[in-house]
Design the sequence.
């Protein structure tokens, strides 16, 4: 009985320790910030995520059940239990509710010192990975493009992109490697996606919804693989990226015109390489929304209570 009781106490102690731990900063003498995360997506790791990796460059973090600052998202209501400064983050097309949060990081262009636009694609790869090298070898990249176009999705309700894929397939087969309409014989996971699409000249990169500012990883994944994105989504996408580096659905009068352009690029190597040589960012410089220094500056304002 005593042994069982001892194990129970140890188990409870382990559980307590797991909820309270220190993440040391890379910076000498860094300020300690008591923080917590909740209501994020499944398998979200409090101790290892994009925000933690960024914040620890300037702060030492204590993950605790009694935080001074809570970062929460849209997958639950646990945030309501906390009494502290609340920071809303969303990777979904959802607006911040400032009656419930003190600050927000979202897709929205909100003119307020309490809001910062931080699109979800920032989480996918370091911002500087999309800076194109001056010596980019477009011919070599093109030589590695052995397949036409891919479509990797699982949502059966996104009728616009499904219909577009079916139209484009009348020209050449579009390989569908997601859980929906799969025709390649295996399911490509989210973590495999960039590697998988490296062989493809084109990638259908349609967002789930079209909304000003809503840009996700769907555009960035093919960019990382030098696969020419066929993008549909954020009507203000030019604020994020150089539209000469991809095909933007809304720039064409019709789907037929867009498909004619895709066919022309597919049949003209020089034209394809012109797109490859275009920088993704304007002036080949990381945009203001995902610039780490800008994000850290906003957290500085929050943690030091300079914005009230």
Sequence:
């Amino acid at each position: 009985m005593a042994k069982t009781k001892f194990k129970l106490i140890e188990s409870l102690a382990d559980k307590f320790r797991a909820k309270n731990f220190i993440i040391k900063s890379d910076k000498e003498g860094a300020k300690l910030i008591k923080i917590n995360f909740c209501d994020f997506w499944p398998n979200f790791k409090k101790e290892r995520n994009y925000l933690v990796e960024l914040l620890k460059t300037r702060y030492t973090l204590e993950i605790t059940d009694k935080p001074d600052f809570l970062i929460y998202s849209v997958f639950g209501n646990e945030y309501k239990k906390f009494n502290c400064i609340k920071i809303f983050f969303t990777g979904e097309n959802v607006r911040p509710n400032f009656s419930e949060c003190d600050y927000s990081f979202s897709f929205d262009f909100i003119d307020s010192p309490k809001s910062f636009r931080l699109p979800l694609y920032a989480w996918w790869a370091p911002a500087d990975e999309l800076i194109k090298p001056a010596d980019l070898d477009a011919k070599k990249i093109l030589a590695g493009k052995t397949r036409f176009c891919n479509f990797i999705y699982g949502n059966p309700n996104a009728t616009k992109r499904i219909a577009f894929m079916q139209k484009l397939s009348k020209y050449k087969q579009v390989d569908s490697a997601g859980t929906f309409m799969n025709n390649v014989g295996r399911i490509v996971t989210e973590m495999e996606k960039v590697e998988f699409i490296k062989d493809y000249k084109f990638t259908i990169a349609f967002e789930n919804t079209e909304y000003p500012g809503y840009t996700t990883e769907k555009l960035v994944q093919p960019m990382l693989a030098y696969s020419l994105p066929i993008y549909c989504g954020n009507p203000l996408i030019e604020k994020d990226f150089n539209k000469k580096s991809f095909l933007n659905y809304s720039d064409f009068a019709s789907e037929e015109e867009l498909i004619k352009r895709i066919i022309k690029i597919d049949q003209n190597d020089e034209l394809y390489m012109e797109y490859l040589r275009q920088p993704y960012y304007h002036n080949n410089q990381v945009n203001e929304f995902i610039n780490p220094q800008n994000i850290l500056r906003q957290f500085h304002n929050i943690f030091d209570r300079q914005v009230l």
